[in-house]
């Protein structure tokens, strides 16, 4: 997950060098990308055990990405705070324990804290320039397909709905009765795919990204790790923090990112976008969709 105390340069270098690493070294790189806070307080042996490789593999990985050894590689992570991980079932049981003990006040504080921290950590790693370039790709495209399954299906549909108030040719996929790869069957380099998935990564989203790249589409990936397969395969990748005391990943930062990305699209759009939005809402008032104020 994101860690604003860790040098972005190291994590970026790992992502850039990914394809040149051996399969064993990739195991170490994946662990580091997903658990940067562990590196600063862990020995070579501890990292090796966590990544399920031999200690000398960790050292070789560090040297392969330009460091003298593990100690040199670890230096940017020294101030990171070790964070434990819990499985979904463990978190669910923990929530039940809190309820039985009457500690919902603590849960309330933890949920609020996690939501604020996720947004802060997400936007700390995303630049204005990265958002601008992705937004321009969206605006200049022929069609925009926003893909999410599970909880991210509603996030994708919310983004598409908001975009449709002023723009056309936005599609939330998969459509009813269809599959993601079917929905982008006729897409090409003129189109954009916005793909969303967090660990454990949904196979149909990963497969759709692979197909989109083969067809020349511009892929915008939104996920919870730089090591995510849809980030590594994207023209534009955005990492969101999704930690939560709950047993499911948080969507707070994903929604915030999508709303911000859409605002950049509108800012990048031609002037008629304002007139379109005004016409859309004017028509809604004319159709009596909104409840008028009571006397």
Automatic annotation (TrEMBL):
<dbReference type="InterPro" id="IPR000281">
    <property type="entry name" value="HTH_RpiR"/>
</dbReference>
<dbReference type="GO" id="GO:0003677">
    <property type="term" value="F:DNA binding"/>
</dbReference>
<dbReference type="InterPro" id="IPR009057">
    <property type="entry name" value="Homeodomain-like_sf"/>
</dbReference>
<keyword id="KW-0805">Transcription regulation</keyword>
<dbReference type="InterPro" id="IPR046348">
    <property type="entry name" value="SIS_dom_sf"/>
</dbReference>
<dbReference type="InterPro" id="IPR047640">
    <property type="entry name" value="RpiR-like"/>
</dbReference>
<dbReference type="GO" id="GO:0003700">
    <property type="term" value="F:DNA-binding transcription factor activity"/>
</dbReference>
<feature type="domain" description="SIS">
    <location>
        <begin position="134"/>
        <end position="271"/>
    </location>
</feature>
<dbReference type="GO" id="GO:0097367">
    <property type="term" value="F:carbohydrate derivative binding"/>
</dbReference>
<keyword id="KW-0238">DNA-binding</keyword>
<dbReference type="InterPro" id="IPR001347">
    <property type="entry name" value="SIS_dom"/>
</dbReference>
<dbReference type="GO" id="GO:1901135">
    <property type="term" value="P:carbohydrate derivative metabolic process"/>
</dbReference>
<keyword id="KW-0804">Transcription</keyword>
<protein>
    <submittedName>
        <fullName>Transcriptional regulator, RpiR family</fullName>
    </submittedName>
</protein>
<dbReference type="Pfam" id="PF01418">
    <property type="entry name" value="HTH_6"/>
</dbReference>
<feature type="domain" description="HTH rpiR-type">
    <location>
        <begin position="8"/>
        <end position="84"/>
    </location>
</feature>
<dbReference type="InterPro" id="IPR035472">
    <property type="entry name" value="RpiR-like_SIS"/>
</dbReference>
<dbReference type="InterPro" id="IPR036388">
    <property type="entry name" value="WH-like_DNA-bd_sf"/>
</dbReference>
<dbReference type="Pfam" id="PF01380">
    <property type="entry name" value="SIS"/>
</dbReference>
